[in-house]
Predict the structure.
Amino acid sequence: MKRNPKVGFIGLGIMGRPMAQNLLKAGFELIVYNRSKPPVDALVSSGATAATSPKAVAERSDVVITMVTDSEAVKELVLGQGGVLEGAHEGLTLIDMSTISPTVTRSVSDSLAAKGVSALDAPVSGGDVGARDGTLTIMVGGPQPVFDSCLPVLNAMGKKVVYMGPTGAGQLTKLANQILVACNMIGVSECLNFAKKAGLDPARVIDSLSAGAASSWSLVNLGPKIVKRDFAPGFKVKLLQKDLRYVLSTATDLNAPLPATALVHQLYKHVEEEGLGDVGTQALVTAIEQLSSKG
Amino acid sequence: MKRNPKVGFIGLGIMGRPMAQNLLKAGFELIVYNRSKPPVDALVSSGATAATSPKAVAERSDVVITMVTDSEAVKELVLGQGGVLEGAHEGLTLIDMSTISPTVTRSVSDSLAAKGVSALDAPVSGGDVGARDGTLTIMVGGPQPVFDSCLPVLNAMGKKVVYMGPTGAGQLTKLANQILVACNMIGVSECLNFAKKAGLDPARVIDSLSAGAASSWSLVNLGPKIVKRDFAPGFKVKLLQKDLRYVLSTATDLNAPLPATALVHQLYKHVEEEGLGDVGTQALVTAIEQLSSKG
């Protein structure tokens, strides 16, 4: 049995930090980098080693994980000055767990391959709770042997780790996930606004409909938050909007029409314009409510 | 303890027939009426009594259940010639379990009240399987004491029987249910067409996404049928369209905007125009596929 790989972790945000903690808990030697210092200090006090750049992380790791906001951030951390590519060495693997454009995933992967670095795209679903509890779903694209060799690392962070196909297939699966998230959320928003206008008790409506053919994760988990006017994230509107931009631009390339998803993206633009980009995605209901206000 | 009420059942279709069977199984004395004869014969051979008109059913019953297609059918069976109202007597209760317009529910209920007949609106979800297994969700509107007195009858047909409020509240809850059904289905349709165009294995996509925040009853139960090109109903397109017409017209009265539900209704119109009104609602995917075909 091979020794555990040394794992580098770049991006210790609301998702990355608990994921890194789970790698430590699973016994992996961990080298961390983050732009701001407090999360680095927290990980170091749990046994990780701090590095001063993505390049330094790569030099000292067998596997480097990136978990950042968007395509631009991944490109800069991997291909930019002091980036992972500058610390490339034989046998290095990059696992990008951010949700980014599949096109960028493929181009970054090509740049890495030219220097002998393997790459997986492995975006996640399950949110900060899944990150903390190690119950994330991880959707993985890339060469199957690389996937197989990284499975122990991925299993330390997720409950359901699924190989989806070649480079980009992980990102494409995550985008398919976000299509459902968007459409299920507009359903819950229209349903609960309709119920309120109809004089029904929305909490009782959620209870009645949760057992049957109308049910969804969104209805069961975000419906009650809407009833309580609890718009704390969960998953932020602006991050779903970022994902939906990738969804819609990829769908255009694929000639895959998304009339409802495009509508939801437009309605969320209104939510953002109202200054609600940092609240939870359940705030979509406010766009529906405003469409029906008399003001 | 009061003796079991005599129950009349009008409308022995794909839903009504197994619901009536469950009433027999629970020990209720049952009087049945249906326009076509074979389902009447089947119930009679299980112990029910046949009546020759809705009026005759009402004369011999304490509780009359109607389970038919739409508002027009309910109006005719209750208010028309030889209808339930002509057989009205003291202590009679009508339970309409059809999905119809809440406006029609209220006007039929008013006509019945004028003759001393109580009424409940009690539409169901759970489909033919739920009807057969007695696992329907039953959403009930009407006076609470009438609901309480009819609970033994309702419990014989459903697993989750919920009192939603005054007359019409059951229908309004069912319409809220159909908003979710429509929006969840467009999500599944857009997601699976996107996945196919992206070269992903749609069955694996369904498996990956079913455990998390993108999940819905529709994804888990109808997604695999789409992958197998199995468009057998389940729930027919034309019946969902009938319900969505009630949804949209009620929503207009309530000033409750439904941009996504209205879009789905439009897309289903295309499905109907393609001659697919009698297949299952999962056929919505064909509208999305045709939008993206090059033909």
